[in-house]
Amino acid sequence: ALLGLSLCALSGATFLYHDYCVLGAGPAGLQAAYFLQEAGRDYIVFERGHAPGSFFALYPRHRKLISINKQYTGKANSEFNLRHDWNSLLSHDRRLLFRRYSREFFPHADAMVRYLEDFASLLELRVQYNTAIVHVTLERNGQAWNGHYFLLTDQDKKSYKCSSLLVATGTWVPNVVNFPGSEYVEGYETVSINPEDFAGQTVLILGRGNSAFETAENILGVTNFIHMVSRSRVRLSWATHYVGDLRAINNGLLDTYQLKSLDGLLEGDLEDLAIVKDKKGKLHITLRFYLENRNISAGIDSITLPQDELDNFATRAPYDRVIRCLGWKFDFSIYNRSLKMMPGKGNIKKYPQIKPSYESSSTRGLFVLGTASHSVDFRKSAGGFIHGFRYTTRAVHRLLENRHHGVPWPSTVYPITQLTNSILKRVNEASGLYQMFSVLADIILLRENATAFEYLEEYPIGVLAELEMQTGRKVPSGLFVIIMEYGRNFSGADKDVFYYNRAVGEAQHAWQSNFLHPVIYYYKRLPTEHEMRLRPPEWPLPRPDAIHHIVEDFLTDWTAPNAHILPLRRFLENCLSTDLRSFFAESCFLFAFTRQKLPPFCQQGYVRMQGLVGSEGLRRHAVQAGLLQDYTPTDFSGDTPPDSHHRSQDQLLRDQVIQVRPLQHLVNAKDE
User: Is residue 16 within 8 Å of residue 100, measured between CB atoms?
Assistant: First the structure.
């Protein structure tokens, strides 16, 4: 901050400079701030409210979150447990796990407000409250990181300058549909949440998302009946496997509709509707074309209603109230034209246009985080929700660390013998892969001659072709990409996900798995941008040189030796033309005399005098498993105690290890 102030003084400007400016102190903004602070970067978070998470102070209106808060999983692994904790942000502080703030499976929204306040204060994040940024523009400068600075102005006309802008303001502007009579509609953001205010009333709800059903659920027991109208059919999250669709906790109105208890659902384009109010204050639904060349203020008697021509018109009964529950959209109003912040197209028009790297499609250095970045995986994965964007925010931070500070994407190098175990560990524990399925992937970069590999976690696969540039890591000789996927034809609003024999249990049919399961793609070289664009429809990646599905598992526990581990190991061996099995020292000793090339496990372990120390219990287990021959004498003679034989066996094993080293040199010399 001192550097920023000195620069401003030299230039005669009146702005405050920071390397990174973060807009919004909601979950995504605080998550970004945490990573920036841990890296020691110069940043500031601007929050228009007096505390973090101001959105959750009002929403959801009926105060019950639909993000699960599972207290117990039967496991102590913290990474695994995050798979079933949809509210916690990522940090090193164990106090900041959401289960310490609420024990409810669907927590109260006030618990989220308290949690975010503590997250900001306990970690001492640099948040400037009561600061509403009202204008953002660009200042071209060749010396800046991205060729320009971002200039920000707040409500008090104070100015700020930053090199990189992280937008984490979410989607908070209500979606409003204008049609004749829309002035009679109440908004979700202001409608009463007291059920008694609806006692004995007839209600029409516009919308069919969770906010609409949440509102209906609150008043279901006191109204005459509730009708719900939207342009699309209801989408159930258990059928689409998308957590943003209708959740079971809110779907009571589906019961009363299908069991014919007066409530009902209708489909229709809201822009074709019109509302007419009669002298008694009742609201009548009609169609816009009936009002053409009519004066709506002339009174209902002069207006043709649909039931005048079709006496069983579905919405012929008048309503006491009409409530709009159409969700929210991104606020584009504060961005100057120079930033070219444009809305997406089609069903993602409520989000700004961004690349799969979460960077603006038009402005370098501007990244969109959190809910507003959901266009990357809308209706596909969890990027619009805390349990998804906590990982995409970390991915963006790693991209920025490499781009601006020369810090490569974190990675770990292992010997090739650890390849199978490394994959199994991640697919059984990793939360980022599990939540951001088909979006974030683990990348395994093979070293020369496949003797070792480099492991990168949770990289955005949409920019796989740019991996070397984005991560600072090289791809010398092929790679594996590990992601989680649902079956290709299993998810959808019209799918029956409870059909008989829906699960696949045999490894040979793993490619037909329906439920979430790991998929490993093998490429001999890094796919190009052209190949990424031409990938098959609904494929997250281009066609690989080889692909392996690990069969789905009812317990999401992919550790079965025959069903999961063995097929995976054989797939990896086929790709690498090597033997990835582990061997006892006696087998490696035998191979040294009988093979021209030792398996990697023997090369990297046994001949370097590394590996398991032999014992009688281990030897007996190997004999029983048929891995070793039993040379144990069946009869002892003389006064030699039995344990002296064990000592002689151990001594022999040590002698073999010592003797095999020069033999291995001879084998290598022969190969050369």
Answer: no
Q: What is the CATH number of domain 182-326?
A: 3.50.50.60
CA dihedral (552, 556, 559, 565) in degrees, to 10, reads 30
Quick one: CATH architecture of 16-173+329-400? Answer: 3-Layer(bba) Sandwich (3.50)
DSSP state letters, 134-166: EEEEEEE-TTSTTSEEEEEEETT--EEEEEEEE
The answer to whether 65 and 413 are in contact (CB under 8 A) is no
Backbone torsions φ then ψ of 11, nearest 5 degrees:
-85, -5
Same fold, 16-173+329-400 and 182-326: yes
Would you say the pTM of this structure is higher than 0.85?
A: yes
Q: How far apart are CA 525 and CA 477, in angstroms?
A: 6
* Residue extents of the structural domains in the chain: 16-173+329-400, 182-326, 411-576
Question: What is the per-residue pLDDT across 4-18, written as a single tens digit (0 to 9) for each?
Answer: 443 454 344 578 999
